[in-house]
Amino acid sequence: MFNKIILWSLTHKFAVLAVAGLVTAGGLWSVATMKVDILPDINKPTVTVFAESPSMAAEDVERLILNPMEAALAGAPGIERIRGNASYAQATIVIEFAWGSDILRDRQIVQERLSQAILPAGVKPVLGPSTSLLGEIMWVGMASHQSGISPMELRTLADWTVRPALLKVPGVASVLVMGGDVREWQINLNAERMRRYDIMIDDVRESVEYALTNKSGGLITEETREYAIRIMVAPSQVSELQEIGIGRNAVDGRPVRLGDIASTVEGPSPIRGSGAIDGEPGVILRIIRQPDAETLSVTDDINEAFTSLSASLPAGVVLHPDLFRQESFIRAGLGNVERALLDGTILVVVVLIVFLMSARTTAITLTAIPLSILTTAIVFKLFGFSVNVMTLGGIAVAVGELVDDAIVGVENVFRRLRNWMLGGKLENREDVVLSASLEVRNSIVYATALVAVVFLPIFFLPGIEGRLLVALGAAYLVSLIASMAVSLTVTPVLSALLLNDKALSGHEKETTVVQKIKERITPLIYWCIGNVKTMGVATLVLTVLTVGLYVFAGKQGIPPFNEGSMVTMVFLPPGTALNATNEYMVKLERALLDVDGVRQVSNIAGRAAADPHGGSANSSEMQIAIKSGYEGERERIFRDIQAVLDRFGGADFSLGQPITHRVEMLLSGVRAPIAVKVFGDDPVEMEKAAKQVVAELKKQEGVTNARIQQNTVVPEFRIYVDRNRLAEYGISSGVVANDLEMGLMGDTLGQVRLGGASVNVVARYDAESKGTMSSLRDLPLPFMGADSLGSIGDVRLEGGRNSQDHEGGKRVLVVSANYQGKDVVGAVGAAKAGVESQKLPVGVTLSFEGDYKSQKESSRRLALIFGIGVAMIFGILYHAFRSSAIALLVMTNIPTVAIGGMIGIWLTGGSVNLAHLVGFISLAGIVSRNGILLIGRCLALVRKERAPFTPETVVRATLDRVVPVLMTSLVTALALVPLLISGSEPGKEMLHPLAVVIFGGLVSSTVISLFLTPALFYRFGRKAVMEAADSSGF
């Protein structure tokens, strides 16, 4: 088939060039219209459920809301993981479905299941908007420190002007607002006066809620005109509420107005979340994109929206548009990889010029690069893939290999045409081109097939690692297959058209560089053939030693990103009030601003409404923006920030990066690289086990910020009502509880519309009525016989759980930690062994997850993939040579990649991560190409030219192929140099370790293959050559 493709191409030259032109045009269009992002889609379809009960304690939320919802969702089709949290007043459930599932169908399944849950009256589960975990693309701050704009006015501006404008931007799914004061009309009820006038909260509700909105009286028609009737009762000022009639005094029958029992003011509502910028209070808007939206285009549209808004904002309002921008990381990452791709291409051009010393052969060879890349773009466009650092990285890693097939073809055609010209031009030029192209056809096809089969099993790698590597592998493979197609079609056509007598003139001899190389290596090859045992033993010893380096090297999971910003989670002791948290964070922010390289600091404390990742009042998330030009100092800045955190104390911390934290969430559901989950039924026993885990983690070098999730007991006031005493008065305990709940927590009676803003009208007891424990006991009750709360019950200060997490319907307590070292797997493994040597509390089980689990599982799968790949390589080689012995001889190159690969790893840090392992896997296919070229040429000499199987024939075959072997290896290796330099730059995090292994492995395997392969082939291949000479494809 491939012979026919080459023959057809040479007989239809202009048709081939026309198709190449169409591919170029289609590829350019695809590149211009493809979606751009930082990473491939690694988000599982996720549905978030919120259920709020404004006054319910965490223990009751777990029992009455979270458990019933989890039970209803159990067994629903397609669900892979359910995580739940019960905290004060809110239950949150995060449901993950399998990759590729339809999110609309998933939401429908969740909605149907939740409708079966039996929940307390008034509790209605709500599905959060369709977003992704990596969808939080921006933090934008608003401040007014030097103006007369109050925090309430700033928050109103954010809620009712800025937020609606942002939600209109295509691709924006949600905007969470934190900070400032939420405007509220407050009816502050005095319990003593309510009792005096015999007024209950229900009376207030019934009277006020109907007086907040205007009513309609229909229409009146008089003669030929029609008039609408409007009943105007809605107040325009909060003071107007005081005139609303509530009832009559039960003693003297005098009318009672709201102002008689309450004060009415406009003030800030009690908040559960706040925001700050550079140590000063402010409002922060967290912008979340829709799952399928493109970050860069959405960000551009948001910027335009802010440009329009800025003209209408009041004087004194300052916007901080870059507290956190995912766009910055994307543009930096893509820019770095694009430059590496361009620089690698330039190095490829240099190598081709040095070896070929011909402008035309260089140009013919180079056509493989743009055509292969543009073909890849077309394929990606058809399948809906995005341009990201992984797909670009796959092409950047392959850019040297893209010309390998063309090099083999052009070099052989050029050599044969040179011999044809020196031999008197006895054949037709096109026949020589056809014969030369067919001669290396099998080498090209089989070499590409070897690389492809090694990579194919990676497409079945599950998890986030699989999603990342599939994108890289797809770009790598598609571009390589495209380059093979170019070498079989365009390359022969251009060779026939461009390599005429004029092009060959002056190239009757090989270039000086090639002559020198052949002169130097010829005696070395002869020496190796005569000393094959020495050469083999030396290679074996080096290989075993470097394999030993792998055994003792540190192990890590996915390489850390360099995002240009950092994030710190701060956890003060449970029960800390929001104002105390804010005071602590102001001091911490100001201290962090003194760290060299920190540009800006912002934080949010508590949580916003409908925030799946929000915390309690004692917790805060801080974004730390790094100055431009400090990207290479990430580790130093990490250490300096950690030093500040250690100096502050009084809180638990978690230090990381925004996108990295979210990837960690995808791995384990925990924002930390080290996560140990403690499962059980008894929270006390679970906490004992968690303390054992923390103690072991703190013993390990590099482990920092080890902490136990703050699911603990906090002080709370508990009101115990005396049912018997209430029964004597004919009062239901439920009625009393309901009245207390509304009065103490607050009851939203309705809303008033003021301009474009809606303002809640809330009634609650005033501070005089409920301010302290003693005033609670003295709280008057509007019930006959019940003089005060203390007369019908008791108020006690006791303890209750602040929060409880679930996973898979079971209680879980999470131990998390950061890691700043080179062997996270070893550190966690040692801690795991230490914990397992102790006795755990009864009923408690542990699950070690995070980077540890990810690396262990992925390395096992990659080992299996490598084994499958090697077996497939053997199958292809056997099919090519029809000889097991020759197939095994070619494969002797594979172990030698460990020598250069592991040396490269040790020179760049000594820790092995998943990208390094993928590099070793890809090398198995790449280095087999050299053996095919060398042994294939020897078989051709014996079979077609009837040369004897002697050392001279083996050396001749090696010299005939030394140029393509060295050129293909050099261009592949040198094209990786830009990825080796400044490997910590954004975008190169996954590519640098991959390049380190491929570069080092290519160097060692190429050098060894040029000498060891001919020696082993002569020593063990004689019988195989005689058997395979007539049956192989060479």
Automatic annotation (TrEMBL):
Keyword DNA damage set for record: no
Transmembrane segments: 340-357, 389-410, 444-464, 476-499, 524-552, 862-881, 888-908, 962-981, 993-1018
Gene3D superfamilies in the cross-refs: Multidrug efflux transporter AcrB pore domain, Multidrug efflux transporter AcrB pore domain like, Multidrug efflux transporter AcrB TolC docking domain, DN and DC subdomains, Multidrug efflux transporter AcrB transmembrane domain
PANTHER family documented for this protein: PTHR32063, SLR6043 PROTEIN
Record keywords, A-Z: Membrane, Transmembrane, Transmembrane helix
SUPFAM superfamilies noted in UniProt: Multidrug efflux transporter AcrB pore domain, PN1, PN2, PC1 and PC2 subdomains, Multidrug efflux transporter AcrB TolC docking domain, DN and DC subdomains, Multidrug efflux transporter AcrB transmembrane domain
Coiled coil: none
Full protein name: Multidrug transporter AcrB
Gene Ontology MF terms: xenobiotic transmembrane transporter activity
Organism lineage string: Bacteria, Candidatus Kaiseribacteriota
Cellular compartments per GO CC: plasma membrane
